[in-house]
Every structure is written in structure tokens, then in C-alpha cells.
Amino acid sequence: METPGLVVHGEAAPFSTALRSLLNNPQYSDVCFVVGQERQEVFAHRCLLACRCNFFQRLLGPKLGSGMPSPVVLSTVPAEAFLAVLEFLYTNSVRLHRHSVAVTFGLGPLQERCIAFIEAHSQEALRTRGFLELSAPALLSLLRSDKLRVDEAELVLAARSWARVGAAVLERPVAEVAAPVVRELRLALLAPAELSALEEQNQREPLIPVEQIVEAWKCHALRRGDAARGAPCRRRRGTLPREHHCFLDLPFK
Questions:
Q1: Backbone angles phi, psi at 178, to 5 degrees
Q2: Which residue numbers delimit the BTB domain (predicted)?
Q3: What do you get for the CA distance between the two ends of the chain, in Å?
């Protein structure tokens, strides 16, 4: 039986530094992206992106041919977020900032880190331009979290702002843009006065399906925790206490 060879591990830090030097470096690059509304050029290396991420493997497949292909235009992706994704792909690490929310292109580990970062800095993140530019799947992942440090009333306002921006860009109704994500808003956490105000605003500018608001009112009317368990009414870390929370018997995670 052949004796296994000796495995030699080099230091990770110099390797990561060397790969970081290739980030957005035109030298030896074989693909160029034109990113964001500012049309910023970003240089990269097809083999590295393709082996690290299925999204880029599909995007940069054989159909592009050999040599330097035409620039790949990603006009809806903020340049800062795109560079953060590339940094993670090149070095397996990335430094996130409060003013930036990264677009993850289906990268599970990076997406998990981004969500954890936003959970810890929820109020700051909601005020950023990056939040307004989140894709619907990314926002859906956030709204499903129990760990957001923000009250539900603020989340409703943030979701409305996000939907307004999307409606303006896509030239579609606000309610249509919001439809994939608003089901994760926990309206039963709002006090009756807040729910009434939301209902009035929803009549002027539809955002939330009427039946979802009806379900929230049902939780208030029944005043029974066991009837509310099936409704999206778990408290988040940032949920402010309200008088009716005691009869909803809400769990807290």
C-alpha cells in the first residue's frame, strides 16, 4: 500500500493578500463588468468567479468564448455591493460597513453573514440606500428573521419605502412590487391605534393585502394567544412592548 504523502499547509494570510491584489485589477483579467447606475468598470478573472459561484459559472459560461469578451452590464447592482461580493469570492472574507448592504448572488455563507450584520445594526441598515436597492428575495430573508433589532412599525415604513422605490424603477404598482415580501410583516404586533392608521394609509396607497390586515384584527378581537400562534406575530428582538402583547402570549426568540 502506498504511503500517503506529507500535506504541507502554507499561511492563509499571505495567500489571501495575494488574491486581494487581483481584485478589480485589469492585469491578467479576462472579464470586465459595467456596474451600477454610474457604470463603473470592474475587472475580474472568469476562472476564479466560475469555480467559486454558480451564478457566475452560468453567466460566464462557454457562450462568451475565449479572449476578452464584451463588458458584462449589471446596471441594477450597486458597485460597492458588487465589489464586496468579489472580495468575498477572491479572499473568502469581506469587511461590511453600516452604510452598505451586499448583494449576495446566492452565496449562502456571505448571505448569512450579511443578515447577521443587518440584524445587529437593523435601524442603521434600514436608512441606507443599499436597503432600498435590495432584491425581493433578500428582503424576504430579512423579514423572516426574529433577530432584527427594530420595531414592527418601523419595518412597515421601511417596506413601504422599499416598494415605492421599486415601483418607480419598474413602473409597476407599489402593492405589486411589495407582494412577495409584505406577508412577512407581523401586523398583529401593532397596537389597535397603529393598525387603524395603517389601514387608513393602505386605503390611500395600497401596500398590504386587506385579508392580512383582517387577520391582525382577528388576533386582537379573540384576545387569545392560542388563536394567534398560527399568525405571523412572534416578537422580534427590537419589538417594543405593547399592552396587547400579554394576551397574545407571544414567544420571544
A1: -80, -20
A2: 29-98
A3: 54
